[in-house]
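Notes from the 1:1 (GR / supervisor)

We went over the backlog. Supervisor wanted to see one worked example end to end before approving the batch request, so GR pasted a single chain during the call. The sequence is below; no edits were made to it. Supervisor asked that the structure be written out right there so they could see what the output format looks like.
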Amino acid sequence: MPHGRNQHADHETYRKFEQEGLLFDDPRSLSWAGQDWGRLVTRPPLAVLRPRTAEDVAAFARFAAEQSCPLVPRAEGHSSAGQAQAAGGFVVDTRALDAVHEIGADRIVVGAGARWSRVLAETLPRGLTPPVLTDYLELSVGGTLSVGGIGGATQHHGLQVDTVLSLDVVTPDGELVTCSADQHADLFDNVRAGYGKYGIIVSATIRLIPAHTRARRYQLYYDDLSVFLADQRRLLAAGCFDYLEGQVDLTDDGTNRYQLELASFYSDQPPRRCADALAELAYHRGSEEIEETTYFEFLDRLADAERMLREAGLWDQCHPWLNLFLPDSQAESIVAGAVKDLVPADIGEGGFILVYPFHAGKVTAPRLELPDEPVVFLFAVDRESSCDDKATTQRMLIANELIHDHATAAGATTYLGAPVAAAPGSQPPVLS
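Structure output shown during the call:
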């Protein structure tokens, strides 16, 4: 198991964890922990802790604090800029902390390493669901709560961190603390969307709501950005759809198309509450696509896309991603400026661009920085490139930084951590 010795390897606590089979510094473990979804930054840690219990995390956190070493949690590693890496420190692999501890009438207690697909597997048979889910279900509970967790239901319920009732957290000094809005509230506020800087989430109590069994999905198309955004605002104000997102579809000739994705959830008959709102929209009549699915099929619709990307060899490519929160008043100008000259090759075969609004007042986690306006848009320019083609990857990073700088100057904030620096004068990334 051990591959090499570091300056802490002879410490009594280090040896204890190593002897118990919890600490790994072999090449495979270090490579795993030094890489993430972005594949843009490589920072191997000194070792990887694979704990069996929350108490293991707490005990090792005390050791790391004594040694003044960073201790960073990681599960699925879906960060895009090295946020789950720990150069000169230790990575905690939380994937084994995936137990479902308790399910009640309105809540579930689950380990931080559990994926949201696992949560749904436990709750849906009981007719329950988390209020907010990300579009990709194979992310860990602890991971999304550490960054925020946004989705098409955020318009109604805030982010995933806003649906948490309590958290079990290992603090930087190794104390295991249960926190909530009423108990250790400062810690609760700090760790939600705190990127693991204020403590490591080891389990979460998440609010549940009744789950419907069916979904009616609408895909509506526009060729005018202003009209597209105006209809998104109209639907946000109406609040009649359960799910609201939007996407920019790039074309080679520069005539971008804008896709509005909506869904209503139901169990018996499709709801008619949104008929009037649909009639008022200015999408291209006759181009709409309407699909009936089960509730879970709708939530898990990216599973097919993942399978196709894996089969095409695109899943493990580099992902120069940029995610921003835009103030409503500046959203159109920022998005228009960012996409006006883009063609599909600029975001890559597996890339995508998301644009959709939500109410800032629904977000309660103070660590999540939002523009100071009542309505905020998520704007995600999530590119994909061959890791072997470093020149293209670098061009994408530079393009992202230009968008980032323009948007933040206009009042936008950054989601999912700072983008990888690439522009002239900034520290270049360590491309893998």
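Supervisor's comment: The longest strand covers residues 257-266.
Batch request approved.
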